[in-house]
Amino acid sequence: MADQLGAEHILRIDEDTEISINSTESALAKSSKAGHSWGIERVGASLSRIPKRYPRPRVALLGTGITPHPHLRPAQAGINFSGEKGLKDHHGLGTHMAGIIGGYSLGRHKSDFHGIYPFLPLSNVKVFNREGKSSISRVIQGLEWCINHQIGLIIFSFATHQHHPALYEAIKTAHREGIIMAAPCGDEGGLGLKYPARYHEVLAVGSINEQDLISSFSPSGTDLDCVAPGENIYSTSHLGRFQIRSGTAIACAHAGGCLAIMLSLKPDITLDGVRSLLKQTCERLSTSNLLQGSGLISLNGIITHLKSSQSQDHVVQ
User: Fold this and answer.
1) pTM for the model
2) Backbone angles phi, psi at 18, to 5 degrees
């Protein structure tokens, strides 16, 4: 093909490198019954705060797939670029993140398990296989699918050490289309965020534990936007029960649920608008900006600020 087109038609040749999802601490929950996640409470995601009369944004989870679960709404749409058959999650991370974002309770008690935005339908974009492996080209295919299907928010589940020009071009294209993207900043600690969180077009999310301390695995850097609960988080399991996992991808799922509600209340918000809102509403922790960015994402702050702004706009009109 290159000989037929001529060298002058080839802009660049990039290596299609393999990428992997970092292993996260995981354990089966002691009970098969729905329980409580401290992270949901910490960001202020009580059931009473969920928007009731606002349009639900189109949100895609780009990861290991989502396995059907009694506490998860069926995916709004789905596509598989992983090389495996089917859209089910044989790894576990995708189903766990989906529960944090949009899981719902089957019981009547508010203490039962629920996600940040219960019943939110997710688009299941499977690009990683059961071993947590993928390639840059498969991730790009997933991004292109999201662009073509008018997705408003993409939640990444991976972090990689290496900048990749072709991936960055796809991310810039998604950004130009107005898509908000959020990614975990990596699970190896130290200074310097991983990609794609390191790109300016992507919101970078770090992790805290239940004591409001930055997780030891959560890296620091000037590119960090915010932090969210990411240690010992209880959520849905691909094995049909519940599981406890840790990692900045888990923190990114918490932030992603909050961003989905943000988009529900203000569908036209831009990335700059999101960053400005985070600076105004995040809860500051007693640590360096390099470790927390704008601080701990606060759903209470986001909703209060946006509804106040809507009231002021209504008065002006």
Assistant:
1) 0.92
2) -85, 145
